[in-house]
Design a protein that fits this description.
Shape: elongated
Largest sheet: 6 strands, mixed, barrel
Helix content: 40-55%
Structural class: alpha+beta
Number of helices: 19
Number of strands: 12
Oligomer: single chain
Distance between the termini: 35 Å
Strand content: 5-15%
């Protein structure tokens, strides 16, 4: 059909949609629902995928690098992720690639034990280049008195109000501490410990009392229970008095080029790691990053599985929408049966009738795609705080990808056309005489479709069992479930016919309902299949 024919069909579809407002609204809402969910999920997913700069701001603030000695390495060489010094592993020194530990009895120390082979713990502060501005972060685990008793918590000494540390914490109430007798606590510790701003907390070991002057939140861990104080408030004294083990990290505002990847690699050889802004932005080949060869890749495998599950869920949701919207298009085509018959009287052929019904899907699918996308964008914006509270992690910047959203909106158009396809082909098969007189021809159900459906169901169940029991494979199991579901859907018309014949054993009301469902299988079968799916 040419462009002018499609233009006329779309004009007819627009007028019909406006005339049958209730049915059109129902179809638009059904098709818009998965578009709404997909667009909201896409924007939220992109927003929670932090950019390199967003991750760095939460970890190192406005500094150029965060440098510290890796306690577990004990001075041995380590390999780290260029963008995050917290992701690091010991470099194995044996050909198999595994770190081998041979325990020795504590009462019989030997000179060749693993511990004596390690060099002294390096001082990360001594490696800071001259001309740098340094902010020290010291933390240790201490016990504090709360309303409900003693609680073990992280005590961090950091001048987080400094411009160098901006972005590491978010002040939620009160102010930053100004003296060594003042602290702030995280929201999670405030609620869990029964504390309040303006109250006091006592460190158990030293008995020192601090005034709580505010609350903060760690952007990546809302449930973190920590105390933050200015440098020199507590930990150095505890270390001298009771030998408390401290972890010192250094936020460094360094000269340009001081912490490029080659400099970070040199620190790794000494057991020191660094989260460096310059290294995170460098485009490095895998050969230059030993950590990538040591990474197990389990996170990638989990991500692939989650993606596969998401694709299956979205696919089944779209299938349900097609099955539910199809009968609504069929009802519209049946009510316009006489109008479609007149198209044949004036010289239109089956192709024109089919195009007119398909145009209904184009018009309503386009409206549903635009509406669902707009509502999804709004939902993603207004649910940002809720999403952050639910996940316990601050969501990133509102990230809209126009091409992705355009594809999702087009998905609504595609769903509308597919839902209208079967009613369009059925309407095109009607004879002109039957359409004008309102008679309904007798159609027999397909004998092949139930056999195909039963075969698909059996194959799908077999694949699901094989993937779950014989040779565990998530992909095979998912594929089997999808194939079995499609097979059951193909069997629905035949199952309705069987149910209609068995209806004579039921009372009058369910018997009439079953017979009507069996008689109108093009309308009933998709609804039953959608419920089964």
């Amino acid at each position: 059909m040419n462009v002018s024919g499609w233009r006329a069909a779309l004009r007819i579809a627009r007028r019909e949609a406006w005339r049958a407002k209730g049915r059109s609204l129902l179809i638009v809402l059904m098709v818009a629902l998965p578009v709404f969910a997909a667009s909201a999920a896409a924007v939220t997913y992109r927003s929670q995928q932090l950019s390199v700069d967003e991750r760095l701001e939460r970890r190192i603030g406005q500094a150029d690098a965060l440098v510290w000695s890796l306690r577990e390495a004990g001075g041995l060489a380590v390999a780290q992720d260029p963008a995050d010094g917290g992701k690091s592993q010991l470099v194995p020194d044996n050909p198999s690639g595994a770190v081998e530990f041979v325990p020795t009895p504590p009462t019989q120390p030997t000179a060749d034990t693993h511990q004596t082979d390690r060099p002294p713990m390096p001082d990360a502060g001594a490696t800071i280049p001259p001309g740098s501005t340094v902010l020290t972060e010291t933390d240790a685990t201490v016990s504090i008195r709360t309303k409900y008793g003693l609680a073990s918590t992280d005590f961090v000494e950091l001048d987080y109000a400094s411009p160098v540390a901006k972005g590491i914490l978010r002040q939620t109430s009160g102010r930053a501490p100004r003296t060594t007798d003042e602290v702030v606590v995280t929201d999670a510790l405030l609620s869990a410990g029964g504390l309040k701003v303006g109250g006091t907390i006592t460190e158990y070991g030293s008995g020192k009392v601090f005034t709580v002057v505010g609350t903060v939140r760690v952007p990546d861990t809302f449930d973190a229970r920590r105390v933050f104080a200015p440098p020199g408030a507590l930990l150095d004294g505890l270390a001298r008095a009771v030998g408390l083990e401290l972890q010192r990290k250094y936020l460094v505002d360094a000269p340009p080029g001081a912490y490029r990847w080659d400099a970070v690699r040199a620190l790794n050889e000494k057991g020191i790691v660094a989260t460096s802004r310059e290294a995170a932005h460098q485009d490095l080949p895998d050969s230059a990053v030993p950590y990538r060869s040591l990474d197990t890749g389990s996170a990638d495998a989990l991500g692939d599985l989650a993606l596969a599950v998401m694709v299956v869920v979205i696919g089944m949701a779209l299938l349900e929408v097609v099955l539910l919207a199809g009968p609504a298009f069929a009802v519209g085509a049946r009510r316009r049966k006489r109008d479609l018959g007149l198209v044949g009287v004036v010289g239109g052929d089956r192709r024109h009738i089919r195009t007119i019904v398909l145009a209904d899907g184009v018009v309503l699918g386009t409206v549903a795609g635009a509406l669902g996308t707009a509502l999804g964008l709004a939902a993603a914006w207004f649910s940002r705080d809720w999403f952050s509270e639910t996940t316990g992690k601050q969501i990133g910047a509102y990230d809209v990808r126009p091409l992705e959203l355009l594809g999702i909106a087009v998905l609504g158009l595609v769903v509308g056309v597919i839902a209208a396809a079967v009613p369009a082909f059925l309407a095109a098969r009607e004879s002109v005489v039957d359409s004008l007189t309102g008679r309904r021809g007798v159609r027999h159900g397909s004998r092949i479709l139930p056999l195909v459906g039963a075969g698909m169901g059996a194959v799908g169940l077999g694949l699901a069992y094989y993937g779950a029991r014989v040779s565990p494979s998530d992909a095979v199991t998912l594929a089997g479930c999808v194939i079995a579901e499609l097979g059951l859907i193909a069997c629905c018309p035949a199952l309705l016919g069987v149910a209609g014949r068995l209806g004579r054993l039921l009372p009058l009301t369910p018997r009439l309902a079953l017979r009507d469902a069996a008689r109108n299988r093009p309308r009933s079968a998709p609804a039953v299949a959608a419920i089964m799916a």
